[in-house]
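Worked problem 6 (solution included).
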Amino acid sequence: MKKLIAIAAGGDSAEEEISLLSAQTVLDNIDTNLFEAVLVKMRFGKWEAHYRDTVINIDKNDFSIELDDKKRYFDYIFIAIHGTPGEDGKLQAYFDLLKLPYSSPNHIGATLTFNKWYCNTLLKQLDFSVAKSMYLRRNEKFNSQNIIDNLGLPCFVKPCSCGSSYGVSKVKKAEDLATAIRKAFEYDHEIMIESQLSGKELTCGVYRDQGEVKALPITEIIPKGEFFDYAAKYQGDSQEITPARIDDEMTLKIQQIAKAVYDKLDMRGIVRVDFMLVDETPYIIELNAVPGLSPNSLVPQQIRAAGLSLTDFFTTIIQETIKD
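Solution. The predicted structure is:
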């Protein structure tokens, strides 16, 4: 009998649109010989299954649906929600309570990677290279000159827990710092200010296949603007080259770092590790525990470059995480 798979999409953040594109990619490429997939849209507490042109409310007590006067239980959830509640650990904790398997890191791993400050702090303690940064909470007093003295200019101001580059600013002049901080606080109550790393921007997808941690080909990102912002990610304002134009030795080094991070932080499913290569040192920028999966997103580009089909890849992710 086919496994009944819920593809969780939507979410409560500004990334809803991207999430729906990712979920559609999974739905379009799921192996229908093995799985029966149902799109489940979640938005501000309204959870609905879209099944054969019918919209059915989800019973949140056990994450089930009523089909043909029969209660159906999902065997597995493929989480394609970027932002809350799919990328910050909330859904993972809920599914853990129900003992339902899912495609992403567990709630601890998701919570950790979703907060850029906490994640980078831990990575630094584990001896991985990260940019120098400072942390601020909303309504906390700050001294712009002190920040600039510590981090220099240009620097980046980022919400700690928000993806798709929402609220991110590159600050070149001291008088623009306070405005960038206010902008970041519109998206989160915690922000981080990070020194600029000048180099080659790279990213690498990592996953587990038959128990072995594997790295996908590396993508080189060349944004047309100041950095890899929303327009660069989703509106074509960047050049993305897979495999990246780096030598074999550096490719292996970055893939080994990405796999080590995946292993050290006990990741699951497909995780994307973003880097800035400065001279010969790869600095980790951030981790994406639920990376974009739309047809033009980075991970699908890497899957194709590896000579894999999306169908086979998604099957691998499901089979590896359904047994955990």
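Discussion: The radius of gyration is 20 Å.
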